[in-house]
Amino acid sequence: MKGNPITARMIPSIFTLANLLFGFLALILVNEEEHTLAAALILVAVLMDSMDGKVARRLSVSSDFGKELDSLSDVVSFGVAPAILTYQAILYPLQPGYIRYIMLSIAAIFALCGAIRLARFNMLNITTHFVGVPITFAGGLLALLVFFRTMLPWYSYPISMVFLAFLMVSTFKVTKLGK
User: Fold this and answer.
1) How far is it, in rounded angstroms, from Cα 28 to Cα 179?
2) Which of 3, 23, 56, 119 is in Cβ range 3.0-4.6 Å of 76 for a Cys bridge?
3) 158 neighbors 103 (Cβ within 8 angstroms)
4) Residue 116 belongs to domain with CATH number
5) Which contacts of 59-63 are long-range, i.e. CB under 8 A and separated by 24 or more positions?
């Protein structure tokens, strides 16, 4: 074999793609009504997301490509997947008629606010703090709440989704941890 097939520049992207893979698999599992396992995979995606940036900084291989790939992965794993999981596992089965469309709208708003938050993050390029709650936190928390679906009232989920969506697009300064 000639040369090294995996360079140091590729390693952070492997973690980012693992994040995306786990988000994708979570969506498949939601479709198969494996809600607990889907929530667990979203939490594994959180772990992968926390690793890609740390590895890139440690190896001094941060790049614009990596930043864009990370945002694309995050919108799937922490925007779309938790929104659909929460809708399918909790909100859809309990609601009749027009209420179902309201719940669907809330799930969509969560995912859309996550995408807006990521786009703003990429444009601002602030390194000292976050503006708004990171999508990784919001989506991870939503997935974590799915584990407690038998203990929490159903209405706590749409309230949490709206609140987290608001926090993602807010202008609150949030301290960066672990940097």
Assistant:
1) 33
2) 23
3) yes
4) 1.20.120.1760
5) 59/8, 59/9, 59/11, 59/12, 61/8, 61/9, 61/11, 61/12, 62/12, 63/9
Distance CA 179, CA 176 (A): 7
Amino acid identity of residue 85, one-letter, is L
| Residue 102 one-letter amino acid | I
For the chain, what is the domain count?
1
CA dist., res. 105 & res. 95, Å (int): 13
What per-residue confidence (pLDDT) applies to 147? 96
- Element of type H or E holding 109: helix 97-124
Q: Is 80 inside any structural domain?
A: yes
Distance of CA 45 to the CA centre of its chain: 8
**Best CA proximity match to 53, nearest among 67, 41, 65:** 67
- Cα–chain-centroid distance for residue 47? 11
How high is the mean pLDDT in each 10-residue block of the chain (179 residues)? Answer: 71 94 98 97 96 88 88 97 96 79 94 95 82 94 96 94 96 78
Tell me, yes or no, whether 1 lies in a domain.
no
In a domain, 6, yes or no: no
